[in-house]
Amino acid sequence: MKAYTYVEPGLAKFVDKPKPVILKPTDAIVRMLKTTICGTDLHIIKGDVPAVQSGTILGHEGIAVVEEVGSSVTNFKPGDKVIVSCVCSCGKCYYCKKGIYAHCEDEGGWIFGHLIDGTQAEYLRVPHADNTLYSPPAGLSDEALVMISDILPTGYEIGVLKGRVEPGCNVAIIGSGPVGLGSLLTAQFYSLAKIIMVDIDDHRLDTALKFGATHKVNNSDTAKAIKEIFDLTDGRGVDVAIEAVGIPASFDFCQKIIAVDGRIANAGVHGVPVQFDLDRLWIRNITVTTGLVSTNTTPQLLQALEAQKIHPEELVTHYFKLSQIEEAYDVFRDASKNNAIKVLIENDLSPQS
């Protein structure tokens, strides 16, 4: 089969790989229908995630059709269309019983495209299929279903819920990429005073306004942007700052705009250390949270999709075949130039579904 594979820092290739097989009774083999590219994939290719070994197939999002199931799989059968969660869960270990699927102790957590082969391929082995796959509700677009694999639960769990977003508060989301926009969509479950999107890309900022942001701030000039945010919040700063970029400058920006008793929710993937201004923040009652998505909100988010409360399908801007994945990466890597938010990649083996 064909698959997009990490080789070494700075290099990934579209190559031939063996088709996966059932290894455990709880496994399923699925034929990928559609997948996408995440900013985390770019971090991996840069070398920011050293746990990824050479030869690993990238990708952790997508929808698929079940081809084969292990003897212990009871929720799915060949021919079923499924959502592939970015996090695998055994459902039985210490962390899974606490709902922290991100740290499943039995071949679980974020392992696709990280510790085992991922979704940017024609076929995929899915560990713990009964708990990792989801049956999609009828009537939802493929675009919306792919967004439920990762960016919506990540934005919601690690941005909105970790940041304790609540009615009436002022929220700034730093980074108008897919995870930042996922945070924006799900923050609107609450009645907020202001949702301020911060980015250096004016197109993405304008897109955020269409998706429900109340204000946009271009932080190409950091000092000017900080002043704008304090002007918008009566000089106090924001109650919640969601970091959705993963670079030191964006985390530092959050520290500079947070109000007394505010929460900084870090959702970005950081490859290098950041400066943490504890000497300035300790007296201001600031909470800083981090996290890896557990996807324990996926059922709730599927209900929100069914009820048409959010429309994540509108995040998709570009379409490619799997055989064009290198071109898709070029477009996504230079998102500002190409006005790209999310790219949808269709398996060449799969008919339109």
Automatic annotation (TrEMBL):
Keywords from the named record: Metal-binding, Zinc
Coiled coil (UniProt feature): none
Superkingdom to which the source organism belongs: Bacteria
Record bears the keyword Metal-binding: yes
Residue ranges of every copy of the Alcohol dehydrogenase-like C-terminal domain listed in the record: 178-306
Pfam families reported for this sequence: ADH_N, ADH_zinc_N
GO molecular function terms attached to this record: metal ion binding
Names of required cofactors: Zn(2+)
Domain Alcohol dehydrogenase-like N-terminal: 25-130
Family of this protein: Belongs to the zinc-containing alcohol dehydrogenase family.
Protein name: Alcohol dehydrogenase
Organism of origin: Abiotrophia defectiva ATCC 49176
Lineage, broadest ranks: Bacteria, Bacillati, Bacillota, Bacilli, Lactobacillales
